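Forum > Structural Biology > Help requests

Title: Can anyone predict the 3D structure of Nod factor export ATP-binding protein I?

Hi all, first post here. I have the sequence for Nod factor export ATP-binding protein I but no way to get a structure on my laptop. I'd be grateful if someone could post the structure tokens.
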Amino acid sequence: MSTNVAIEIKDLTKKYDDKIAVDGINLEIYKGECFGLLGPNGAGKSTAMKMMYCSALVSSGELYVLGLNVKKNYREIKSRIGVVPQEDGLDPDFTVLENLLVYASFHNIPVAEADLRAQALLRLMKLEEYQDRSVETLSGGMKRRLAIARGLINSPEVVFLDEPTTGLDPQARVWIWDFFKHLKSEKSTLVLTTHYMEEAEQMCDRVAIIDGGRILTVGKPRDLIRELIGKEVVEFDTNPVDLNYYLGRLRAEGFSYQVIKDTVSVLVKENQEGRRVVDLIASDKIFIRKPTLNDVFLKLAGHQLRDE
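Reply #1:
Sure, ran it for you. Structure tokens for Nod factor export ATP-binding protein I below:
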């Protein structure tokens, strides 16, 4: 295992009875990078992450975190990582400050040191004035910030973030992602799952798109966009009567495309011109835009709704 690798995964599998949630994945996550696990509901991304932070047992394969085998060294791994789960799991019986101090005690952090760390984290999270309040009095965004502070109380070498901004209003989401950029600037290793493709595109150094328990692709967002989508996307609306006619014209010209209901997204490669698509199509609603990571996600994982 290279000294630059924070997490190394070889043929990792997780089974629940007859169901395979993670199906033989291979992956390396490097120290100091922000790595995103992306996929539709039920893809296996959260299960894979839970095995990384020792919350789910490995069925088969090998998984090393910070050079330690999760099957044998899970206690030491837990002492060196931070976890912000999808459900905050804050204790309503304790105040904001007490939630941090109790969690610090689980890591055997001396009381005086724990108090210093907790106070510093509350200031960093803009929660210092709420330290003596009950957790139940906090807004959703404040609870999320407190959960993040709790995940950082042991000064972790790797931080796992499972859907860190789900259910938050736009202002809270922006604040939290700005804070993650701060962590990233300090060379922290971040591993996250998210449904927000635009955030993953801006935040992550690399991403893996997972579906059916398998990794479909791994790479830098901009590289994946260029390789799998192209330089631009032409979108247009049509009706069912004309759809096949226009798709035939696009195929004849060598264009690839994605169809979602009555909207067609034409993927324009480097050697093609988006204006040519405009010439081929008659539509009241047609425009050319930059490709995004969401286009990559839809191309690989599809657009059908999934159960949670």
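The CA atoms of residues 113 and 158 lie 21 Å apart. The chain has two domains: 5-225, 230-290.
Shout if anything looks off.
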